[in-house]
């Protein structure tokens, strides 16, 4: 039996008649588990109107009360995180422990947002002129839009909405239509936590819903995460309509392994970061850059570890689940064929894997290529699947140049025991997030997440203090009280006296 997944508008499930909908799959069985409503422009307009109506009341709700609601949400999310993780696994396919990990990383942003009273504190300068004080405040924007990808249906929305709501904004979230139920579950938790209706809305859909958010005059900002072509489109369209936009795009993350590295640690890291979540992470490692002479040894160690990985249903304690849809599995398998045809050495071929799961699941096993070159599509393009490429380079400088020449700049890692080399790398590499002997350097909630180059459009990263800055705008106030003197008319530019 398939369930209907509908929007959450003004504090309750939407009750309208749906015009268009899409299929939602259980990727581990290939069975259609639900149908998700696709919003027309008019339905998106209803959600924006509800958010707009809720804004003045929520903005004027005291900080103390807003934080109480956030703490209540935090408690509910913590108590029900297994339930949410199971929803993520059922629609995304990632294994349960990984789904729980994403919920935990989202929870950390909620905890960061619980500190909003401190984060919103402005500055105060007493007596800048005789009897005159200057101070600054940061105020919410109004209705803010969030558009999220399929690969983190719980965590990515939580990079944004806890901070947006804590700062006094109201939210319209358009989650991925591939795994929409996590967002609806989160909306239910907000209602239970005491968030007023209209402050958090979820609207499902495709381009029509996105375009309405991007062009609607009552939407003040858009936070987007997804592939680079759509991120670029969202940035250009949203800013052309006067909105503040942060659009996080795709990735191709390199792991540079220097000759002095601990190769067992590096091989563990390459396997964990290459095949965790079936490579469907924007911080996945997809290229290992082996500096001579480590190539042969490193490839052997990676292949040895891959032989022990169990691919299967994420509910059965396997290491790696299916890909999100059959179409995506076929696209990734197409890259494997293209890599082999282009002359890369196919060390481990994940097509036709042994799986612990139903025959109809969207399976592709871990795949390893060696001797990959920069002209191959498996190197140049984002694959977003369990395909790891090894590129061999003669030196640190050649490896660095390779990374800096790639159009993406989301994450990267260096494996070395040389502190000087690591320090040089962190300084010279043109990438937003860097790991030193750490393969997936996703910053903690109180730092900000974001890439460089084609991995981010806009100038503000997600969460941390940059997130607070994105969801607020500043005012500076100059005030004079009870000053008996009066300087009279003076058309000169005000200066201190
Ligand atoms: P996607 O770009 O296909 O979809 C992202 C969102 O955009 C979804 O909500 C989708 O409904 C919407 N969308 C899709 N096509 C659209 C169109 N033509 N017009 C308007 N909206 C459209 O991305 P995805 O496949 O869901 O997610 C995977 C991608 O996201 C990968 O490229 C991955 O690297 C990227 N990602 C990046 C980060 C990051 O932090 N940089 C994090 C997670 C995922």
CATH architecture of the largest domain: 3-Layer(aba) Sandwich
Structural class: alpha/beta
Distance between the termini: 76 Å
Please give the share of residues in helix: 25-40%
CATH topology of the largest domain: Aldehyde Dehydrogenase, Chain A, domain 1
The tally of structural domains comes to: 2
Biggest sheet, strands in spatial order? Answer: 16-18-19-14-13-21-22
Percentage of residues in DSSP E strands:
15-25%
Could you say which overall geometry the principal axes of the C-alpha atoms support? Answer: globular
Ligand list: nicotinamide-adenine-dinucleotide
List the uncertain runs.
none
Radius of gyration: 25 Å
CATH homologous superfamily label of the largest domain: Aldehyde Dehydrogenase, Chain A, domain 1
Largest sheet: 7 strands, mixed
Structure description:
The chain is an alpha/beta fold and 497 residues long. The protein folds into 2 domains: 3-249 and 455-477, 3-Layer(aba) Sandwich (Aldehyde Dehydrogenase, Chain A, domain 1), CATH 3.40.605.10; 253-436, 3-Layer(aba) Sandwich (Aldehyde Dehydrogenase, Chain A, domain 2). The chain is built from 16 helices and 25 strands. The strands form 7 sheets. A 7-stranded mixed beta sheet has the order 16-18-19-14-13-21-22, with helices on both faces. Strands 10-9-8-11-12-24 form a 6-stranded mixed beta sheet, sandwiched between helices. A 3-stranded mixed beta sheet has the order 1-5-4, with helices on one face. Strand 6 (124-129) and strand 7 (132-140) form a beta hairpin. Helix 4 (96-113) runs parallel beside helix 6. The longest helix is centred in the N-terminal third of the chain and has 19 residues, at 41-59. The chain is globular and about 80 Å long. The site of nicotinamide-adenine-dinucleotide has 27 residues, from helix 8.
């Amino acid at each position: 039996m398939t369930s209907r997944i509908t929007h959450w508008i003004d504090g309750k499930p939407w009750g309208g008649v749906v015009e268009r909908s899409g299929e939602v799959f259980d990727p581990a069985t290939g069975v259609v588990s639900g149908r998700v409503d696709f919003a027309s422009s008019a339905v998106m307009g209803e959600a924006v109107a509800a958010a707009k109506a809720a804004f003045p009341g929520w903005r004027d709700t005291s900080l103390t009360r807003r934080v109480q609601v956030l703490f209540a949400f935090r408690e509910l999310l913590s108590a029900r995180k297994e339930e949410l993780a199971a929803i993520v696994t059922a629609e995304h396919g990632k294994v349960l422990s990984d789904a729980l990990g994403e919920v935990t990383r989202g929870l950390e942003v909620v905890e960061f947002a619980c500190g909003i009273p401190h984060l919103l504190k402005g500055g105060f300068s007493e007596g800048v002129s005789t009897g005159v004080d200057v101070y600054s405040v940061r105020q919410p924007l109004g209705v803010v839009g969030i558009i999220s990808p399929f690969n983190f249906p719980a965590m990515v929305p939580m990079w944004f909405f806890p901070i947006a709501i804590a700062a006094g904004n109201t939210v319209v979230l358009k989650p991925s239509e591939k795994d929409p139920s996590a967002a609806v579950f989160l909306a239910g938790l907000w209602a239970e936590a005491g968030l007023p209706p209209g402050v958090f809305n979820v609207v499902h859909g495709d381009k029509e819903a996105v375009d309405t958010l991007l062009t609607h005059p009552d939407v003040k900002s858009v936070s987007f995460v997804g592939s680079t072509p759509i991120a670029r489109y969202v940035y250009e369209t949203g800013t052309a309509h006067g909105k503040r936009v942060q659009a996080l795009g795709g990735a191709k993350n390199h792991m540079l392994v220097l000759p002095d590295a601990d190769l067992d640690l590096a091989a563990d890291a390459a396997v964990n970061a290459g095949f965790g979540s079936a490579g469907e992470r924007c911080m996945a490692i997809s290229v290992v850059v082996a500096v001579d002479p480590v190539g042969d040894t490193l490839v052997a160690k990676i292949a040895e570890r891959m032989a022990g990985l169990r691919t299967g249903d994420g509910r059965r304690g396997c290491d790696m689940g299916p890909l999100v849809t059959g179409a995506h599995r076929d696209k990734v398998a197409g890259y494997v064929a293209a890599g082999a045809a282009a002359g890369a050495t196919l060390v481990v071929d994940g097509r036709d894997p042994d799986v612990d799961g139903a025959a109809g699941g969207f399976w592709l096993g871990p795949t390893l290529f060696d001797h990959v070159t920069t002209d191959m599509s498996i190197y140049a393009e984002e694959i977003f699947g369990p395909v790891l490429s090894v590129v061999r380079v003669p030196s640190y400088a050649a490896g660095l140049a390779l990374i800096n020449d790639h159009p993406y700049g989301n994450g990267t890692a260096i494996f070395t025991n040389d502190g000087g080399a690591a320090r040089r790398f962190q300084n010279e590499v043109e990438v937003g997030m860097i790991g030193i002997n750490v393969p997936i350097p996703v910053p903690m909630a109180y730092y900000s997440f974001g890439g460089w180059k084609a991995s981010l459009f806009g100038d503000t990263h997600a969460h941390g203090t940059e997130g607070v800055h994105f969801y607020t705008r500043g005012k500076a106030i100059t005030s004079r009280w009870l000053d008996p003197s009066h300087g009279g008319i003076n058309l000169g530019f005000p200066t201190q006296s």
